[in-house]
């Protein structure tokens, strides 16, 4: 009996060159062995005689055999197989098999396949449409085909949109105008005391490399009073749209929030919990941020507000309320067709080398970091959290931004990792706290710029 592992290269070669050997081999082999040999066939010779056997296998009851047989038939790029592939797409129900057969039609690379591929553009399965698009992209210089493909730029399926955007980038996407690694000097190690929305009016497009922020918590602290939750979300939406505008192509925006609780107004009312991260997420996606990761910042339970003690006493279902020990650190990237590699390649090798994240790093998305307390500000980032973000998501010399500066923790972290920082803070007392924190921690020779809104306006970045 042939054992899967024992199929030797000679047998593979014989299957490719000798139709009778191939047929005999398949007729006695078990499904597992057939799949194995089909995977091993590799490049098929021009005089390959096993086409009809592969066609039979492509109609087998076993899905994996079908798939492997179609993949091998596709390697032949044979126009005579066109009607066979069309029949597979028509008669099969399995999405993977239909997708593979459509891909096989594309691989024929003959103009004769164009009408068939065009028909498949109206298939019900986006996977089939994608393969039909890939097949037609071979002919994208043909104006009619280009027009047809471009009509898919707003297709409801996001992967189809992405493929069209990538392929027709010059036609569709606004190109970055600025140099990727540099940033405007006026923003270097700059703190502006003012409302972020006012300040950003004077910051030009694509100025910054990374934003990490913790926005005001809806009506949970004195510094953040809004008329309604809707007004609060609308305010943050405006701010994050501006952050999107001033962020460089393909760079990151990292948002720290958590659901908050507004205590009940009296014994006959209940407290209300607001799911801030979940409400912000769809707004961020809509404005052009791509979701990358959800990191969880976990704090020791002792540091959390005690919500569980009532339940601990009565143990009645429905009234369960856990202590909340985590916050979300949501990672987004400015949507682009460019890969991360493109961003990295914008930097000199020396900068990439020096920016490498050496030593320990967080290997999972659960980051256990103790909270810290500041004598002036009631809700500050632990520096460790900022250090992780700065090291993992920026290069030396990059400009790192926090629209809600607070006590300036991100600035401190940026400076200690040879990055530049820019921050805005509305409250004058906190603005002074940032100055104190920055000056106390870093040598005067690093030039800092502390401006009022008026001064910043007059300096003019835009
Ligand atoms: C959660 S705190 C940020 C704390 C900061 N991450 C730190 O480590 O110190 C949010 C800050 O946003 C500021 N803020 C609120 N609304 C603002 C606005 N419209 N423009 C600028 N800053 C604002 C508040 O004064 C507060 O200091």
User: What proportion strand?
Assistant: 5-15%
| CATH class descriptor of the largest domain | Alpha Beta
CATH level 4 superfamily of the largest domain: Vaccinia Virus protein VP39
Q: What's the domain count?
A: 2
Q: Which shape, going by the Cα principal axes?
A: elongated
Q: What composes the largest sheet?
A: 9 strands, mixed
Class computed from helices, strands and strand pairing: alpha/beta
Average pLDDT taken over every residue: 92
Q: Give every kind of bound small molecule, once each.
A: S-adenosylmethionine
Q: Count of helices?
A: 22
Work out the helicity level: 40-55%
Spans where pLDDT lies below 50 across 5 or more residues: none
N-to-C span: 77 Å
The CATH architecture of the largest domain comes to 3-Layer(aba) Sandwich
Biggest sheet, strands in spatial order? 8-6-7-3-2-9-10-1-11
CATH topology of the largest domain: Rossmann fold
Roughly how many Å is the radius of gyration?
30 Å
Number of strands: 11
């Amino acid at each position: 009996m042939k054992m899967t592992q024992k199929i030797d290269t000679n047998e593979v070669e014989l299957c490719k060159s000798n139709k009778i050997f191939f047929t005999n081999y398949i007729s006695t082999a078990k499904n597992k062995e057939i799949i194995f040999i089909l995977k091993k066939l590799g490049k098929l010779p021009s005089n390959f005689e096993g086409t009809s056997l592969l066609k039979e296998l492509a109609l087998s009851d076993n899905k994996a055999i079908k798939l492997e047989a179609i993949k091998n038939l596709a390697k032949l790029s044979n126009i005579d197989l066109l009607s066979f592939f069309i029949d597979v797409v028509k008669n099969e129900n399995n999405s993977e098999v239909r997708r593979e057969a459509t891909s096989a039609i594309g691989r024929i690379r003959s103009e004769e396949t164009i009408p068939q591929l065009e028909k498949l553009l109206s298939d019900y399965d986006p996977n089939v449409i994608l393969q039909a698009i890939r097949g037609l992209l071979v002919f994208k210089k043909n104006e009619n085909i280009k027009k047809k493909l471009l009509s898919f730029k707003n297709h409801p399926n996001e992967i189809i949109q992405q493929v069209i955007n990538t392929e027709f980038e010059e036609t569709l996407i606004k190109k970055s105008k600025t140099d990727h690694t540099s940033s405007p000097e006026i923003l270097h190690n700059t703190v502006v005391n003012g409302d972020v929305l006012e300040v950003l009016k004077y910051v030009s497009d694509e100025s910054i490399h990374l934003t990490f922020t913790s926005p005001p918590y809806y009506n949970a602290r004195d510094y953040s009073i809004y008329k309604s939750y809707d007004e609060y979300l609308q305010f943050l939406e405006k701010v994050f749209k501006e952050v999107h505008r001033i962020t460089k192509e393909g760079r990151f925006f990292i948002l720290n929030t958590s659901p908050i609780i507004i205590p009940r107004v009296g014994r006959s009312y209940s407290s209300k919990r607001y799911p801030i991260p979940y409400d912000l997420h769809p707004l961020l996606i809509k404005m052009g941020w791509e979701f990358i990761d959800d990191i969880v910042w976990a704090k020791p339970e002792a540091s959390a507000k005690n919500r569980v003690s009532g339940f601990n006493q009565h143990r009645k279902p429905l009234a369960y309320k856990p202590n909340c020990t985590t916050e979300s650190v949501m990672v987004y990237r400015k949507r682009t067709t460019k890969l991360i590699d493109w961003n990295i390649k914008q930097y000199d090798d020396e900068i990439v080398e020096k920016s490498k994240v050496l030593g320990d790093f967080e290997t999972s998305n659960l980051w256990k970091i103790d909270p810290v307390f500041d004598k002036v500000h009631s809700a500050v980032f632990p520096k460790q959290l900022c250090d992780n973000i700065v090291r993992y998501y920026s290069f030396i010399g990059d400009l790192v931004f926090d629209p809600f500066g607070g006590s300036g923790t991100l600035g401190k972290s940026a400076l200690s990792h040879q990055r530049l920082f820019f921050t805005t803070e509305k409250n004058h007392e906190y603005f002074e706290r940032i100055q104190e924190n920055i000056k106390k921690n870093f040598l005067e020779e690093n030039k800092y710029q502390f401006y009022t809104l008026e001064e910043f306006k007059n300096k003019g970045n835009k």
